[in-house]
Design brief:
The structure holds 2 protein chains of 2 kinds. Chain A is of the alpha/beta class. Chain A has 10 helices and 11 strands. Chain A has a 6-stranded mixed beta sheet with strand order 2-1-3-10-4-11. Chain A has a 5-stranded mixed beta sheet with strand order 7-6-8-5-9, with helices on both faces. In chain A, strand 1, helix 2 and strand 2 form a beta-alpha-beta unit. The longest helix of chain A has 16 residues. By secondary structure, chain B is mostly helical. Chain B is 78% helix and 0% strand. The relative contact order of chain B is 0.16. Classes of the chains: A alpha/beta, B mainly alpha. Chains A and B meet through helix 3 and strand 7 of A and helix 10 of B.
């Protein structure tokens, strides 16, 4: 009991000494940022980074409703634009951080899908994608289907999901026979294969913007973390997970 | 089909299943004693004690393509996940305990000598259930049915997990509201929410009516 109290006191003391910053980031960044968190903990031991991963639209909503967030990384400019319009970003801190590629995935052991045209096959009952209205990966997927003139044919098969992770899982289990995710997601799973890659001109450019939120209580720590994400150490991690650095 | 009509169809279908299953299980439980039936009792009530996400997970593990049952069904050309029946299944599972519990309570109130008398006169157990027990226990049964309907109509978590979000096919009103809010479409969410509110108020009013004594 006494030991527990001592531990608690130590933990509280440690928590008080360090500067906490909350980073709301698109779900597709989960693994890369979690690894960067470890690197950053060594580089900046007095800053404790906490992540909040979700679909970019959900994160945008949270920030608009006053969630205590210091840094936002969105999977598309749309959500960042909305926050900028409402003057919720710290002026001059927004810039483009990363790029990504959209791919069509299928369960590893399935041979039904070899390319986008196969999505219209009867064996393909469900195609998973992020909800196009709130999940950027879903928006790009919907744009790609329009560009390929497949929208009307596959409309009733589209299962709109909360984020790309859910898309990946449902294709892994085979409940969806195909799905649209980022290349970075596809690299994470051994249970799926990439059936096709969307051409850059088939959808809007996939850019991850980053910015410090205006209401941050630790603007310096937040800026420093944003700067670190462009450092060589961070670039190495992003490259390892398949992200490109935004020009 | 719009989310509201789809939700109503799902809730009505689930309530029908819940009614039949709940009444039959409650009737069966009435004359059973012992450890086995107590274990089953706990199982029947479990969905009300668990978060919908746990129900969703259990259903995914049972009916998903990666499960033995899911695989078997797939071979037969059936798949439940991401289809309309999945919305009914989720609603049925979460509303069943309500129907079961209220039906049990209502049946337990019936004077057993009445039922024995019916048996003496040669009535079959089926006939006793439909012609005597249900009419006597009706206020309780009706209340259970309405509560089950409301629970079925409001189901969200397990539905989203096993039925997904396909507009016109599996997108129920609660799911549509959630995604509209995610997309920042407050107006769209509000309209659906108000419609659900109206249905719920009407159902609760009906429920209150059942409890009002008919003759003063």
């Amino acid at each position: 009991m006494r030991l527990a109290a001592l531990l608690l006191a130590l933990l509280t003391a440690a928590a008080q000494a360090a500067t906490p910053i909350t980073v709301s980031a698109a779900a597709s960044l989960k693994d890369a940022l979690t690894e960067i968190q470890k690197v950053y903990a060594k580089a900046q031991p007095d800053v404790v980074v906490t992540y909040n991963f979700a679909g970019s639209g959900a994160l945008q909503q949270q920030i608009e409703n006053g969630a205590p967030v210091d840094v936002f990384i969105s999977a598309a400019p749309k959500q960042m634009d909305a926050l900028e319009k409402r003057e919720l970003l710290l002026a001059g801190t927004r810039r483009n951080l990363l790029t990504n590629t959209l791919v069509l995935i299928a369960p590893k052991n399935s041979t039904v899908i070899q390319g986008f045209a196969d999505l219209t096959k009867a064996d393909v009952r469900h195609i998973a994608l992020g909800d196009p209205r709130s999940v950027p990966a879903g928006t790009y997927a919907a744009e790609t289907l329009v560009a390929l003139k497949l929208s009307a044919a596959v409309e009733s098969k589209l299962v709109r999901m909360l984020d790309v992770r859910q898309v990946l899982t449902s294709v892994e289990t085979g409940d969806a026979q195909a799905g649209f995710v980022y290349r970075t997601e596809a690299l994470l799973s051994e249970k799926i294969r990439v059936a096709a890659t969307a051409a850059a001109e088939q959808h809007a450019p996939i850019i991850y913007p980053i910015a410090v939120i205006k209401d941050t209580k630790h603007p310096d720590a937040a800026r420093a973390f944003v700067a670190f994400l462009s450092s060589e150490a961070a670039k190495t991690v992003f490259a390892k997970f398949g992200f490109g650095m935004a020009p | 089909m719009g989310p509201l009509r789809l939700s109503l169809a799902t809730a009505l279908c689930a309530t029908l299943l819940t009614f039949v299953a709940g009444v039959l299980c409650a009737r069966w439980r009435l004359t059973r004693r012992g450890r086995g039936s107590e274990v089953l009792d706990t199982l029947f009530m479990l969905p009300i004690a668990l978060p919908p996400s746990v129900i969703g997970l259990a259903l995914l593990l049972t009916f998903g393509r990666s499960s033995p049952i899911g695989e078997l069904l797939a071979h037969l050309g059936w798949s439940i996940i991401f289809t309309w029946p999945a919305t009914v299944l989720a609603s049925f599972v979460v509303s069943f305990p309500i129907m079961y519990q209220t039906a049990r309570g209502a049946f337990a109130q019936i004077d057993s000598s009445l039922l024995d008398a019916a048996r003496v006169f040669g009535r079959s157990e089926w006939s006793i259930l439909w012609k005597i027990m249900l009419p006597i226990a009706w206020p309780g049964i009706a209340a259970g049915t309405i509560l089950s309907f409301l629970r079925a109509l409001g189901e969200f978590g397990a539905t989203l997990m096993i039925a997904g979000n396909i507009p016109g096919k599996t997108q129920t009103a609660p799911v549509a509201i959630f995604f509209a809010v995610e997309a920042g479409e407050r107006r769209e969410a509000l309209i659906l929410a108000l419609a659900l509110l109206a249905i719920s108020l009407a159902a609760i009013a009906l429920l209150n009516r059942l409890h009002r004594p008919a003759v003063l």
